[in-house]
Amino acid sequence: MKSLSVLTLSILGTVVGAVIGVILILTRTLPEEASAQAGGIDDLYSAFLWFSGIIFGIVTLILLVAVIRFRARPNDTRDGSNLHGITWLEIVWTVIPFILVLAVAFVSWNLLNANNVSGAAEKSGQRIHISAYQFGWKYTYLNEDIGIKDSQELVVPVDVPIAFDITTVDVMHSFWVPAWRMQMGATPAQTNYASATPTKIGEFDIVCAFLCGVGHTQMNSAVDSNLVSKVKVVSQADFDKWVAETKSEAAAS
Ligand SMILES: [Cu+2]
After folding, report:
1. What is the pLDDT of residues 122-146, one digit of tens each?
2. Which of 15, 129, 133, 228 is deepest in the core (most CB within 10 A)?
3. Contact indicator for 44, 111 with CB cutoff of 8 Å
4. Mean pLDDT for the chain overall
């Protein structure tokens, strides 16, 4: 026990933590990946989990050994030694976390940038405006050839980049499609932007991720009794059909 140095403990902690990280990654539960951007987000999430596991391992191991090894023995009523600042140690424990946080910010920024397909959507995809309200969502299709206004339903073609702009008519909401790993806040008096390229045909949940009032849970399509519908990802042919039908319905009413 006496021969255990901080370095040995750190190496041991790294090994233990790496194993904990792998267990966390293997046992994590995430929704299915249904957009071109989801894979990158999940990989980054795994990397952070693994890294957190390592830090957890090092800290916990050193803590445990310190508690056991330096505990007060029975009848030992002396005060502990009075330590003043150790400058080099304080610099180390400030600089290391600072570098780690910067690194996390840098890789996250890079990935979010790479995941931004707004430019491609403007050129050859769909542009959709989401208006959030207490308690639901309205969708307006901005491409001129579509022109659907205030739809209660979000239907999008598969494998097409989509640029969303998001506003709210009342309080803060947050538009979240977990399967796309896409979430964007709706902020009063401001327009926010998000984008995604759906890669799977099907219906996926839409969730409001900000507590926005008593009806907050009504903005979650995963709750069966709710009126809010899931996002429908369909083939281009089915999308064209839906657009034609919705337009003729609007014209008839
Ligand atoms: Cu909401």
Report:
1. 999 999 999 999 999 999 999 988 8
2. 228
3. yes
4. 91
